[in-house]
Amino acid sequence: MAKTGDRHVIPNPVSAVLGRVFRHSATRQGYGPIRLSDQKEFSTLDGTSYGALAEDPCGNFFTKTIDGAIWFWDHETDQLIRLADSLPDFLAGCVEPEPINLDPSRVKSVWIDPEFARSIGKKVPKDGWVKRSK
Fold first, then answer.
1. Which residue range forms the structural domain that includes residue 116?
2. How far apart are CA 75 and CA 56, in angstroms?
3. Is 105:91 a contact under the CB 8 Å cutoff?
4. Domains: count for the chain
5. pLDDT digits (tens, 9 = 90+) for 88-116
6. Where are the alpha helices (DSSP H) in 1-134?
7. Is the pTM higher than 0.85?
Protein backbone atom coordinates (compact mmCIF):
# COMPACT_ATOMS: atom_id res chain seq x y z
CA MET A 1 0.00 0.00 0.00
CA ALA A 2 1.45 3.36 -1.04
CA LYS A 3 1.16 6.31 1.31
CA THR A 4 0.38 9.80 0.02
CA GLY A 5 0.48 12.47 2.72
CA ASP A 6 -1.90 11.27 5.41
CA ARG A 7 -3.80 8.97 3.04
CA HIS A 8 -3.14 5.36 2.17
CA VAL A 9 -3.56 4.67 -1.53
CA ILE A 10 -4.34 1.13 -2.63
CA PRO A 11 -2.83 0.60 -6.08
CA ASN A 12 -5.21 -0.72 -8.72
CA PRO A 13 -4.05 -4.29 -9.53
CA VAL A 14 -5.05 -3.69 -13.15
CA SER A 15 -2.13 -1.21 -13.36
CA ALA A 16 0.14 -4.23 -13.93
CA VAL A 17 -1.56 -5.00 -17.27
CA LEU A 18 -2.13 -1.54 -18.75
CA GLY A 19 -1.87 -1.57 -22.53
CA ARG A 20 -2.36 -5.32 -22.67
CA VAL A 21 -5.30 -7.25 -24.09
CA PHE A 22 -7.26 -9.94 -22.25
CA ARG A 23 -7.35 -13.06 -24.45
CA HIS A 24 -10.45 -15.17 -23.66
CA SER A 25 -9.34 -18.78 -23.14
CA ALA A 26 -12.37 -20.33 -24.86
CA THR A 27 -13.08 -17.94 -27.74
CA ARG A 28 -9.54 -16.49 -28.20
CA GLN A 29 -11.30 -13.11 -28.58
CA GLY A 30 -9.22 -10.14 -27.41
CA TYR A 31 -10.59 -7.42 -25.12
CA GLY A 32 -8.69 -4.16 -24.70
CA PRO A 33 -6.18 -2.65 -24.77
CA ILE A 34 -6.75 -2.11 -21.07
CA ARG A 35 -6.49 1.32 -19.51
CA LEU A 36 -7.51 2.82 -16.19
CA SER A 37 -10.81 4.65 -16.15
CA ASP A 38 -11.62 8.05 -14.70
CA GLN A 39 -15.19 6.84 -14.45
CA LYS A 40 -15.96 5.01 -11.19
CA GLU A 41 -19.08 3.23 -12.43
CA PHE A 42 -21.27 2.66 -15.47
CA SER A 43 -24.87 1.57 -16.03
CA THR A 44 -26.39 -0.90 -18.44
CA LEU A 45 -29.57 -0.07 -20.36
CA ASP A 46 -31.74 -1.65 -17.66
CA GLY A 47 -30.24 0.80 -15.12
CA THR A 48 -28.01 -1.70 -13.30
CA SER A 49 -24.83 0.01 -12.07
CA TYR A 50 -21.41 -1.65 -12.02
CA GLY A 51 -18.04 -0.51 -10.73
CA ALA A 52 -15.56 0.32 -13.47
CA LEU A 53 -12.37 -1.67 -12.88
CA ALA A 54 -10.84 -0.51 -16.18
CA GLU A 55 -11.87 0.41 -19.72
CA ASP A 56 -10.78 0.09 -23.31
CA PRO A 57 -10.30 3.01 -25.73
CA CYS A 58 -13.77 2.46 -27.27
CA GLY A 59 -15.89 3.18 -24.18
CA ASN A 60 -16.34 -0.40 -22.99
CA PHE A 61 -15.70 -1.36 -19.37
CA PHE A 62 -14.21 -4.19 -17.36
CA THR A 63 -15.98 -4.86 -14.04
CA LYS A 64 -15.66 -7.17 -11.08
CA THR A 65 -18.87 -8.65 -9.66
CA ILE A 66 -19.53 -9.61 -6.06
CA ASP A 67 -18.56 -13.25 -6.75
CA GLY A 68 -15.11 -12.02 -7.86
CA ALA A 69 -15.63 -12.73 -11.58
CA ILE A 70 -14.37 -10.24 -14.17
CA TRP A 71 -16.76 -9.18 -16.92
CA PHE A 72 -16.52 -7.02 -20.05
CA TRP A 73 -19.39 -4.68 -20.90
CA ASP A 74 -19.79 -3.78 -24.58
CA HIS A 75 -21.48 -0.37 -24.71
CA GLU A 76 -22.80 -0.90 -28.24
CA THR A 77 -24.62 -4.15 -27.55
CA ASP A 78 -25.15 -3.65 -23.77
CA GLN A 79 -23.83 -7.20 -23.43
CA LEU A 80 -21.86 -8.40 -20.39
CA ILE A 81 -19.32 -11.09 -21.26
CA ARG A 82 -17.75 -13.20 -18.50
CA LEU A 83 -14.00 -13.17 -18.99
CA ALA A 84 -12.52 -14.81 -15.91
CA ASP A 85 -13.57 -16.36 -12.60
CA SER A 86 -11.24 -14.14 -10.56
CA LEU A 87 -8.94 -11.13 -10.77
CA PRO A 88 -5.79 -13.34 -10.71
CA ASP A 89 -7.22 -15.39 -13.63
CA PHE A 90 -8.00 -12.17 -15.49
CA LEU A 91 -4.50 -10.75 -14.94
CA ALA A 92 -2.95 -14.05 -16.04
CA GLY A 93 -4.97 -13.90 -19.27
CA CYS A 94 -3.65 -10.47 -20.27
CA VAL A 95 -1.11 -10.47 -23.09
CA GLU A 96 0.69 -7.95 -25.24
CA PRO A 97 -1.48 -6.92 -28.20
CA GLU A 98 -0.56 -8.33 -31.56
CA PRO A 99 1.09 -5.80 -33.86
CA ILE A 100 -1.05 -4.27 -36.56
CA ASN A 101 0.47 -4.63 -39.99
CA LEU A 102 -0.93 -2.36 -42.66
CA ASP A 103 -0.39 -2.94 -46.34
CA PRO A 104 0.57 0.56 -47.54
CA SER A 105 -0.89 -0.17 -50.99
CA ARG A 106 -4.36 -0.52 -49.40
CA VAL A 107 -4.27 2.75 -47.42
CA LYS A 108 -6.36 5.37 -49.22
CA SER A 109 -6.06 8.21 -46.72
CA VAL A 110 -4.75 8.96 -43.26
CA TRP A 111 -5.36 11.75 -40.77
CA ILE A 112 -2.32 13.20 -39.03
CA ASP A 113 -2.70 15.79 -36.30
CA PRO A 114 -1.31 18.94 -37.97
CA GLU A 115 0.31 20.14 -34.72
CA PHE A 116 2.00 16.78 -34.22
CA ALA A 117 3.18 16.73 -37.84
CA ARG A 118 4.63 20.21 -37.41
CA SER A 119 6.39 19.17 -34.19
CA ILE A 120 8.27 16.41 -36.05
CA GLY A 121 8.98 18.49 -39.14
CA LYS A 122 6.35 16.96 -41.46
CA LYS A 123 4.08 18.96 -43.76
CA VAL A 124 0.44 17.95 -44.01
CA PRO A 125 -2.65 19.77 -45.33
CA LYS A 126 -4.28 22.17 -42.85
CA ASP A 127 -7.09 19.70 -42.14
CA GLY A 128 -4.58 16.87 -41.53
CA TRP A 129 -5.92 14.53 -44.23
CA VAL A 130 -3.26 13.02 -46.47
CA LYS A 131 -4.79 11.22 -49.46
CA ARG A 132 -3.06 8.83 -51.79
CA SER A 133 -2.94 10.04 -55.36
CA LYS A 134 -4.61 7.78 -57.87
1. 102-134
2. 11
3. no
4. 2
5. 999 999 999 988 888 888 888 889 999 99
6. 87-92, 114-119
7. no
